[in-house]
Amino acid sequence: MNTNSNIGINTTERESGLGEECGVFGAYDFDGADIASTVYYGLFALQHRGQESCGIAVSGTSRPIENTKLKKGMGLVNEVFTEESLNDLKGDIGVGHVRYSTAGSSTYENAQPLVLNYIKGILGLAHNGNLVNALSLRKELSMTGAIFQTTIDSEVIAYLIARERINSATVTEAVKKAVQRLEGAFSLIVMSPRKLIGVRDPHGFRPLVIGKRENTYILASETCALDAVNAEFVRDVLPGEIVTISPENGIESDKSLCLPEDKVARCIFEYIYFARTDSYIDGINVYESRIKAGKFLAMDSPVEADLVVGVPESGNAAALGFSLESGIPYGNAFVKNGYVGRTFIKPKQSNRESSVQVKLNVLKEAVRGKRVVMIDDSIVRGTTSDRIVNMIKEAGAKEVHMRVSSPPFLWPCYFGTDVPGREELIAYNRSIEDIRNIIGADSLAYLKIDRLPQLCDGLSICNACFSGKYPIAPPKEDIRGERTED
Ligand code: SF4
């Protein structure tokens, strides 16, 4: 489980189960300048997508390819890299990764990017998402002699690319052949000796964007990473698109694997929770989506109250939306301790302190004697919600009405998040009234499932963890090693 984050209470929820995924960032400076610090700041802006490990690989496109350098480690970006280590990473093309393990365990070997020596030189790869056919591909490759050094499905992708490269005229052709074997979620950045390649799976589960800063081209999970390095947003990589970036041809696009829009399945939870509030995904501003979610909650599940508060961070925008729609004043009820680094010692069950309390405190003056509407982005197992409701009540609130800016989680996710198995989900086999009772709120309501498409202006989405309608058949055996429900 992740204990490395400093981003707030949503991480605390993660201790009881809900994890994010990964972030990828790649850059190529056509003028030949070193790129490592740009990748570093890009990853820093994507830290919310994964806090267990991170890494950067760089290469010099005009130097011998043996000069490819890789540094990775366990922990946050600013814990793993120093000024010195960045200075050692010389090269004008690079790829970086921040990881939260949704497939494969949390170990140094499984940290990315992966760097592979193969017939045409060196290949760097960073992957966000989960494959649903990784196990069968891994078995198939092992039968033909492949030896795997990690337990992550990303290594399967790297092998497939390397194998296809032998019979392909270009690395892009090899990538295209390889990704046609993959089923599941993948936003990939591939660094070849002289090309940077971005791929988004045909369902478009995870985001991927293109940016540019003078003569430097960038691929990144989210637009917030472009802002961090002062790059302008060029466009989203389309679901199913392969983009190849090189000084000879700029950005080349292959859209032959794209599906019709109604088959695309963007993860709706990116908009609700995973992505940073200031990012745009496929033209939709994440902040606006969250404001809308709050407005819908106020329309569909109104309540008489004196104050609306959000559980930081992703609950805040939805709380503002609720306030705007209902006219109930918006305020802050929480102060969080953001200094939770890798060495944070989680309180034991026997301790009187809880992880929630040491990371988050209630502003007593703000809530005392008030009827409070508290907005959170989700309830996974319910343990965190239970504690937060309790904290607000102990601080003197008269009533606590919980509103959740997503529908109840009823099904696990196989596409790059660790929304867990059904038996662990509080909403599975329970009524809303049962859940309300468990968390101790005075009332409880969730966002209605038919509101989800409206959060992203009708774009085609995945909502499988709420509906059980999977855009791709779930694996019989989970890559995480668990059996899935039949
Ligand atoms: S199942 Fe849920 S969390 Fe997973 S990709 Fe679909 S919407 Fe996102």
Automatic annotation (TrEMBL):
<keyword id="KW-0808">Transferase</keyword>
<keyword id="KW-0411">Iron-sulfur</keyword>
<dbReference type="InterPro" id="IPR035584">
    <property type="entry name" value="PurF_N"/>
</dbReference>
<keyword id="KW-0408">Iron</keyword>
<comment type="similarity">
    <text>In the C-terminal section; belongs to the purine/pyrimidine phosphoribosyltransferase family.</text>
</comment>
<comment type="function">
    <text>Catalyzes the formation of phosphoribosylamine from phosphoribosylpyrophosphate (PRPP) and glutamine.</text>
</comment>
<dbReference type="GO" id="GO:0006189">
    <property type="term" value="P:'de novo' IMP biosynthetic process"/>
</dbReference>
<dbReference type="Pfam" id="PF13537">
    <property type="entry name" value="GATase_7"/>
</dbReference>
<dbReference type="InterPro" id="IPR017932">
    <property type="entry name" value="GATase_2_dom"/>
</dbReference>
<keyword id="KW-0328">Glycosyltransferase</keyword>
<dbReference type="GO" id="GO:0000287">
    <property type="term" value="F:magnesium ion binding"/>
</dbReference>
<feature type="binding site">
    <location>
        <position position="267"/>
    </location>
    <ligand>
        <name>[4Fe-4S] cluster</name>
    </ligand>
</feature>
<feature type="binding site">
    <location>
        <position position="377"/>
    </location>
    <ligand>
        <name>Mg(2+)</name>
    </ligand>
</feature>
<dbReference type="InterPro" id="IPR005854">
    <property type="entry name" value="PurF"/>
</dbReference>
<dbReference type="GO" id="GO:0051539">
    <property type="term" value="F:4 iron, 4 sulfur cluster binding"/>
</dbReference>
<feature type="binding site">
    <location>
        <position position="465"/>
    </location>
    <ligand>
        <name>[4Fe-4S] cluster</name>
    </ligand>
</feature>
<feature type="active site" description="Nucleophile">
    <location>
        <position position="22"/>
    </location>
</feature>
<feature type="binding site">
    <location>
        <position position="314"/>
    </location>
    <ligand>
        <name>Mg(2+)</name>
    </ligand>
</feature>
<keyword id="KW-0460">Magnesium</keyword>
<keyword id="KW-0315">Glutamine amidotransferase</keyword>
<feature type="binding site">
    <location>
        <position position="376"/>
    </location>
    <ligand>
        <name>Mg(2+)</name>
    </ligand>
</feature>
<comment type="pathway">
    <text>Purine metabolism; IMP biosynthesis via de novo pathway; N(1)-(5-phospho-D-ribosyl)glycinamide from 5-phospho-alpha-D-ribose 1-diphosphate: step 1/2.</text>
</comment>
<feature type="binding site">
    <location>
        <position position="462"/>
    </location>
    <ligand>
        <name>[4Fe-4S] cluster</name>
    </ligand>
</feature>
<protein>
    <recommendedName>
        <fullName>Amidophosphoribosyltransferase</fullName>
        <ecNumber>2.4.2.14</ecNumber>
    </recommendedName>
</protein>
<dbReference type="InterPro" id="IPR029055">
    <property type="entry name" value="Ntn_hydrolases_N"/>
</dbReference>
<dbReference type="InterPro" id="IPR000836">
    <property type="entry name" value="PRTase_dom"/>
</dbReference>
<keyword id="KW-0479">Metal-binding</keyword>
<dbReference type="GO" id="GO:0009113">
    <property type="term" value="P:purine nucleobase biosynthetic process"/>
</dbReference>
<keyword id="KW-0004">4Fe-4S</keyword>
<feature type="binding site">
    <location>
        <position position="413"/>
    </location>
    <ligand>
        <name>[4Fe-4S] cluster</name>
    </ligand>
</feature>
<keyword id="KW-0658">Purine biosynthesis</keyword>
<dbReference type="InterPro" id="IPR029057">
    <property type="entry name" value="PRTase-like"/>
</dbReference>
<dbReference type="GO" id="GO:0004044">
    <property type="term" value="F:amidophosphoribosyltransferase activity"/>
</dbReference>
<feature type="domain" description="Glutamine amidotransferase type-2">
    <location>
        <begin position="22"/>
        <end position="248"/>
    </location>
</feature>
